[in-house]
Amino acid sequence: MVIGILIALQINNWNQSRLDRIAETKYLKSIDKELIYNNYLNQSIIISRLPKKVEGLTLAKKYCENEIIVTDTLEFLNRVSYGGGAGGYDFGKRSTYDELVNTGNLQLIRK
Q1: Distance of alpha carbon 80 from its chain centroid, rounded?
Q2: Running DSSP on this structure, what letter comes out for residue 71?
Q3: pTM above the 0.70 mark?
Q4: Is the predicted pLDDT of residue 77 greater than 80, yes or no?
Q5: How far apart are CA 41 and CA 26, in angstroms?
Q6: pLDDT digit string (tens) for 1-55?
Q7: Residue 30: which residues within 8 A CB-CB, separation 6 or more?
Q8: Is the CB of residue 34 less than 8 Å from the CB of residue 96?
Q9: Is 17 left (phi over 0), alpha (psi -120 to 50) or beta?
Q10: To 10 degrees, what angle do helices 50-64 and 73-82 make?
Q11: Which among 9, 42, 76, 94 has most CB atoms closer than 10 A?
């Protein structure tokens, strides 16, 4: 009878380990997709717009240093404001990471 219980425990441990590896694979694939998306977002929204942002900030600096005179206020504000903040964009996804931390499943990810 003791041998039967030990075998049942071993089978249970093996099955739980198998389920953990399946969950780990699912999480890692999901993180990979999020990283690919975040990289695309970073390239398309931030890096590709960098020259225009630098231009807007340079224009604002010149205005503050009295190097230019503004003749069209609306155009000036439009150009300068482009160099300001992030424009309200989402900087990526991290829902899988948040799920791992919030559920305690981060321990499933092996080194």
Answers
A1: 27
A2: S
A3: no
A4: yes
A5: 23
A6: 889 898 999 999 999 999 999 999 999 999 999 999 999 888 887 787 888 888 9
A7: 96
A8: yes
A9: alpha
A10: 130
A11: 76
Identify whether the C-beta of residue 45 lies closer than 8 Å to the C-beta of residue 89: yes
Residue 78 belongs to what H/E stretch? helix 73-82
**Mean pLDDT on 88-106:** 86
Say whether pLDDT at 64 is over 90. Answer: yes
**Which phi and psi angles does 84 have, rounded to 5°?**
-80, -125
Percentage of the residues of the chain whose pLDDT score is greater than 90: 59
User: What number of residues does the chain have?
Assistant: 111
Residue whose pair of structure tokens reads 């829902």 in the numeric block: 95
Alpha carbon distance 37, 23 (integer Å): 21
| Crossing angle (nearest 10°) for helices 2-41 and 95-103 | 150
Best-predicted range by mean pLDDT among 30-34, 43-47, 80-84, 86-90?
30-34
Radius of gyration (C-alpha) of the chain in whole angstroms: 27
Rounded to an integer, what distance in angstroms lies between the CA atom of residue 91 and that of residue 46? 9
